[in-house]
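Recall that a protein's primary structure is simply its ordered list of amino acids. Everything else, from secondary elements to tertiary packing, is in principle encoded there. The following example makes that idea concrete.
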Amino acid sequence: MKTEFRLRTVAFAVANVFGTAIIFALGSSGALAQEKVERVEITGSLIKRIQGEGPAPVETYTRQDIERTKATNVNELLRAIPSIDIYDQGELASNSPAGSGTAIVRMRGLADSNVLVLLNGRRLPINALYDSSGAGAAVDINMIPIAAIERIEILKDGGSAIYGADAVAGVVNFITKKDYRGFEVNVGYGTSSRSDGTEKTVNLAGGFGDLNKDGYNVMLTFNDFQRDPILRKDRDISKSVDFRPLGGRDSRSSFSPAGNFVDPDTGAFTGGFLGSCPPENLSGGRCRYDFNASLLTAYNGADRQGAMAVGTLKISPNIRGFAEVFYGQAKDHFDAHPVPDYFTVSSGTGLIAGRFMQGGPRITDRESTTDNVVVGLEGNTGKYDWKVAVGQGRSKVTNRDQNYYNQTLWTAATESGAINPTVNTNDTAFVESLKVRPLRIGESKVQHIDAQVSGDLMQMAGGPLAYAVGASFWKESLVDTPDPLTQAGLVAGSIAQAGANASRNANAIFGEVNIPVIKNLEVQAALRYDDYRTVTKTSPKVAARWQVLPALALRASYTESFRMPALKQLFGAQEQGAVNINNDTGAENCQKLGLPATCDISAFQVNGSNADLKPEKGKTWNIGAAFEVGSLLFGTVDFWRIEKSDTIDSPSIDQAMAQGLFARDAGNTRWLVFTNLQNFAKFESEGVDINLRARIAKTPVGTLSAHNLTTRYSTARRRNGSGAEWETLNDTYRYPKMRNTFGLELENGPWTGTMAWRWVDGFYDTDVLPTATKPIPDGTRRVSSYDEVDLFVSYAGFRNFKLDFGIKNLLDSMPPFSQQNASSNAYTQMGFAELYTSRGRFYFLNAKYTFK
């Protein structure tokens, strides 16, 4: 395995050097096209400037860049950007009450709540359902219609001083089309080489009115996205949870239809079972159930629609009114296996780990909507540009569940023998009388008023000293109401889910200056004061850009940040999630429970909010360069470092067990491990981003362009408490050191060919984090690297008509096997990390017609 890893790493390194050499060769062979530029507001500053000239590292993707990826939704688009971390559990897992069907953004190894997602520079509401741990307290980017996006700007050095306290890792700003005229329709169809995961898309965009001539412009977009699911049973890597043929372990569930007898005092399996067990299901002294062999999805289906309207009205030569209305909806259907739980029975030990097949699959129908309305005025008065806006965003999610049971009634029925949970011949009417249909409704809102003024204060030797000042007032609210039985943990087949009903008001004032110290040196300074009533914080930012040579600029920045706890982290209740305690989590954990070191039992992890949580604090450094080679090749290199303290986290299972935070539940049927949120962790992350682009205007075969984007982590580590050792996340499960995207594009008349190669580094197959005194043991398995190659062809030779045909994942690469994923139900248990999918080769055809 190490030899294979080294060979793949060397092969990638050679290919990456070769790709870089191609870019340099291209850059030395022809001239880059020069485009007319205008001064605009770029993410990372409130002062208008020319694109790319500022001191902050901003990665920009234009509409043309977006179309090159052939992405059908925003999540797929961001997956191709190396600086965006991938953890795609929401698209892969169908059994997460809060997360299934969602997609969130992560950067710099930090949690999703540390990235600020904006639409046209303003906040969007976070997903209405998220865990009490705070996981998922972020914008669901699946709700943003890709048809409306004109460009994406990614600020990579933190933006707390400009945009708000939670922009610790960075800012992703989706900017929509404006002053658009015409109409276009784009339809697409795609399917995998295995005839599943079929996607159908319809994108419409239209605009009318010339702002200068008519005094108004209205732009409308609509996006419809339909995707069929891919089932686990239809991929070799995930068709069974018995991963022994792949070199893993047998992870089939002990919650079997046969009903494995459990010792009520210890939780250990006795080796007997209540019903009959087929011989092929016997393993390790118990009857097993293979939940990957049917029902569960490897890639969730989708039914999403999004619409947006942007209107601009010229009130006077210097004043414009604007309005933005966005609405997105998604409907998801998830199937899970029939109810598993510990059932009280009237024979044997009196307790079994069972699964009631007669009740049918558990079903969740999820409906999600996001709406966002902003209205405002902007203009210029004399030397001043100004803008004021008011808006409200709302996320609403409804989960409707079926085929669950009232725990109290269910226990009475199985204990008395009225229900035999191991057969399918119980009285149907009686079974139905025990069922409940839990309903969970969540609503998250953000209401805001923003105002800002910018202009030039004075003329200096290097140019005008520019400034911007502003203020924001906003209110966040969250109402999350799981079914009362679910909140009480009294639904058989489900877990306790935390409710919340909380809100808070906040306001901020901020200012920024851009100082041209000399002609080739500018300094940016920004300061923001946030007031959350209970907490106030001042966040500074200092950045500089030095044009050393006409073809070389150096830049550096320092930012301080803080992130308030999410509302549910402060005011939520307790939640439970299933975990395994076995030899993989540490033999000492089994022994703490009075069990043999080789135990393998299911337990429940209990998380809860903490009203005394403090804000997380952070510091970010960035130093980089932007350069051109012979005025032909453009590139940027940025080194960054983030330090966070008072990080909100839960103790690991090992840490909680070491502190004695475990007990039996009230019914004495299962172990509970308590992990409460605390401000006890520190986090450090550092690395480098490299961006190289070149374009040859004339070659014998057409115009040839190339780009290579790399993000490499040198450090990602955390420390859980002042006396604890630093634990290394880098190069462990789902924390690869490096991601790379290399692309070539050839244009010849109406024809365009595109090749994209995406590569993800391998990692050690463990989530037991190494420390200085406990390094990763020799012989620890490594997950190999993974890559995909896409090939697209476009033809635009018809009047106003364009065709795209392509193959994504041309070589039909399948994810490398991960024992960690396969063995732990904290993950998807599909045999691979949530960094990629098992969709395989995918064919698509798109047609676009533009009305002028």
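The mean pLDDT is 89. Residues 2-27 form the longest helix (26 residues).
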